[in-house]
Design brief:
With 156 residues, the protein is α+β, with helices and mostly antiparallel strands. It has one domain: Uncharacterised protein PF16224, DUF4883 (Dna Ligase, domain 1). Helices cover 31% and strands 22% of the residues. It is built from 4 helices and 6 strands. A 6-stranded antiparallel β-sheet has the order 2-1-3-4-5-6, with helices on one face. The longest helix has 15 residues. The radius of gyration is 21 Å and the shape is elongated.
């Protein structure tokens, strides 16, 4: 009887850890982000597949939020389309301040956040991401597509 119980416990123990070999789990335990534009690529592919469901801007000082209109969403699309590899930063810039604005983009069931720090720096990450956000330098982006300028326009 003792052998039967111990063999049963051993089988339960072995089968409970067999799910850990799932190949999808190998990405959730990586400590290093695969590349500097990981989340931005995920956002762009999600938008290509599902499109924009909702885009909301939040002003952080007064906690005011606004839904973006179609023209403003086109500005966000143009910004995302104008990003180049040289805009991505390898590490976090020296940002001692909280973001002045946040833009929440919902596409299908996924939600992404864009932290807008100033005219130069933004960060992109998913709502439930496990890596550091993607940091971008917007200094070479056209002023028309600059997200800081868009948010300033929305809250003027």
């Amino acid at each position: 009887m003792k052998k039967l119980v111990s063999s049963f416990l051993m089988l339960v123990f072995l089968f409970s850890f067999s799910g850990c070999s799932n190949s999808a789990l190998k990405y959730s335990f990586q400590r290093k982000k695969p590349n500097n534009f990981y989340y931005t690529n995920a956002l762009l592919s999600q938008l290509k597949d599902k499109g924009f469901s909702n885009v909301l801007a939040l002003e952080m000082n007064l906690q005011k939020e606004k839904n973006l209109g179609d023209a403003d969403i086109e500005t966000v699309k143009s910004f995302l389309g104008s990003i180049q590899a040289k805009n991505f930063l390898a590490s976090c810039p020296d940002l001692s301040v909280q973001p002045q604005f946040r833009i929440y983009i919902t596409s299908g069931s996924e939600k992404y956040v864009i932290n807008v720090y100033n005219e130069k720096y933004i960060g992109i990450f998913p709502w439930d991401g496990s890596y550091n956000m993607d940091y971008l330098d917007m200094s070479e982006i056209k002023p028309l597509y600059n997200l800081y300028n868009l948010c300033k326009y929305l809250y003027r």
